[in-house]
Amino acid sequence: MQEDYEEFSPQEIKLLENYVTNTSSHIFCLRNLPEVIKGALFSRYSRSSLGLRALLLKEFILNEEEASFGSIVPTSVDETAENQMLALKKAQSFYDRILDGYGDDSIGELGGAHVAIENVSMLAAKLIEDRRIGGSPLEKSTRYIYFDQKVNGEYLFYREPILMTSAYRDAYVDTCNMLFETYSKLIPPLTDLMEAKFPKGDSISTGAYKASIRAKVLDCLRGLLPAGTLTNMGIYGNGRFFEHMIQRLHCNNLAELQDIGKRCHQELGKVIPSFVRRSHTEHRNQVGFAKFQEAMGSSIKLITEHNTGFKERTTEPGVRLISFDPDSPSKVAAGLLFEHSDKGLHELREYCRNLPKEEIASILDAGCMARENRRHKSPRALEHAEFTFEIIADFGAYRDLHRHRILTQERQLLTCDYGFYIPSELDEMSEKGAYIEAMERAKKVYDTIAEELPEEAQYIVPMAYNIRWYFHVNLRALQWICELRSAAAGHPTYRLIAQEMARQVSEAIPEFERFFKFVDYEGYDLGRLGQEQRKAEKAKRVSQKL
C-alpha cells in the first residue's frame, strides 16, 4: 500500500491523537470534533495540498486567533474520549442485536462518520465514489492544486503492486514520470500565454486574476495526469453507505481497492463498529455477497465474450440521446396536476394525453415560469420523463460529471481506444507537440500492458483520453445537471456535454425546452474570473467590517 508522506513531531502526534483515529496510516477517521469544525475542515481540504491531519494542525488547532479551536473544542479530551468509548461499547450490543435480529438496514443510517482517504489513485477515487446514496465525497481538485510536486524525488502516482512486480514495471514508471514531467514543463509557458492573452483589468483584484489564470492553465493540462495520480478524499457517510462501500471494495479485482476496503473497515470500526461489522471479510453477509458478485460477474463476462458476432462500435466522441418517451410531456403534466387533484394518476394521464398541445403547454409553464434561478428546484413531476444518453468524452470530464448521483450511470474500463482531448489553447503554443507526443507514448505502453493486464493498465491512461459511459436520468435531475454544469466557471469539456444534453432533449421534445432556461450556452475565455472576483470582493467586505 502507498506509504504516508507526512511526518509529525511527538508533540503534534499527541495533539492529533485526540482528534484522529490514526496518526500514521493514510486512512483514518475524525473524532471528538464538533460538526462545524469537521464541515469546515473537509471544505478546506479539497483545495489544499496538505493532508487532513496537517491541515487540522495548521489551520485549526494552531490557528487559535482565527479558528478559536480551543474555545470550541476542549484542549484535553481524555475524559470526553473515555466517556465516548464507554457509551459506544454500551450501545454496541443494542445495535448488534437489532442488525442481526431484525435485519433492518435503515438502522445503519443512524450513525455516521467522516473518513479521510489519502494518497490513493484517481482511479480508486472514482470506484469509491460509485456508491451513490448516503455518502458525500469531496476530492482534491485538479483545478486549484498543482500536481507536479515530488516527495523524496518521486512524482506522486500509485505504484500498482502487480505492475511493479511484472515485466512492465520500468515502462509503467517511466511513462508516468514522462507524463508528470510534460505537465510540469508546460505550466510556465501556458501561464505566460494566458496572461498575455487575458491581461488583468484595473478593476480586477490580483488574487482573483491569478486564481482564474491558474484554473485556466490547470484545466488545460490536467489531461496529462495519469489515472494513477495520487489524490486525497474526504467522505462523510452513514453506516449503511460505508457498509456497502466496503463490501464492494473487498470484491474489486484491483489490489489497491481491496486494501482500501480493509483499512476503511479497520478505521470505521473504531468509531461506528456496529454499522460496518457485517462488511468484515469473514462475516457471513460479506462472504455471501462476494460469492454473488463473483458468480454474476463471471456469467455476464462469459456471455459477453461469446457474443462475438457483433463487431461494430461507435468510437467518435460526443453525446448521443439514445432513448426517451414521446408521451412524457403528458405524463409530466399529469404529475403536476396530481398533488392538487383528487383524481388518480392513471385518470390524469389519460386526461392529459387527450389535451391539445396548448393546454399541455400551459400546465408545463405553470411548473416552471416562477423559477428565478437554477437553485429553485422543479417539482418531482419532472421525474416522470426519463432519458438515456451515451457519452464518449475525456476521463477528466467524466470525473466531474460522475459526482451527480441521482441518476443511473455505468462506465467501461479506461482505455486509449477512443482518442484524446486536446485543449484549443495549446494550438497557439509550439509545445503542443510535446502534449501530443506524451499522449501517444502513453497509448503505446498502455496497449502493451492491457494485452495481459487490462484492469491494471488503467492506471497509466492519461485523463485526456476518452471513456465511454451512459447516463439514464430523469428530467428533474437532468435540469439540475445541465444548468449547474453549463455555468461560466465550469470546465469547457463538461460545459459542452451539459449544453449538448439540454439541446438534444429540447430538439427531441420541444415542450421541455422551457425547463432549461438557465442553461448557459455561451463560451467563456476565462470562466473562473467572475467567480474569483466576487469571492475577493466578499472577503474584502468582511475584512472591512472586522
Labels describing this entry:
546 residues; alpha+beta; Gyrase A, domain 2; four-stranded antiparallel β-sheet; 22 helices; 50% helix; globular
Structural class: alpha+beta
Can you tell me the overall shape? globular
Question: What level of helicity do the residues show?
Answer: 40-55%
- Distance between the amino and carboxyl termini: 47 Å
Largest sheet: 4 strands, antiparallel
Counted by DSSP, the helix tally is 22
Mean pLDDT: 88
- Note the beta-strand portion: 5-15%
CATH class of the largest domain: Alpha Beta
Major sheet strand order? 1-2-6-3
Stated plainly, the CATH topology of the largest domain is called: Gyrase A, domain 2
Please give the number of β-strands. 10
- The CATH architecture designation of the largest domain is 2-Layer Sandwich
Computed over alpha carbons, the radius of gyration is: 25 Å
**Unreliably modeled segments:** none
Count of domains: 3
Characterization of this structure:
- The protein has 546 residues and is α+β, with helices and mostly antiparallel strands.
- It has three domains: 200 residues, Gyrase A, domain 2 (2-Layer Sandwich); 97 residues, no CATH class; 155 residues, 2-Layer Sandwich (Gyrase A, domain 2), CATH 3.30.1360.
- It is 50% helix and 11% strand.
- The protein is built from 22 helices and ten strands.
- The chain has a four-stranded antiparallel beta sheet with strand order 1-2-6-3, with helices on both faces. A four-stranded antiparallel beta sheet has the order 7-8-10-9.
- A hairpin with a 2-residue loop joins strand 4 and strand 5.
- Helix 9 packs antiparallel against helix 10.
- It is globular.
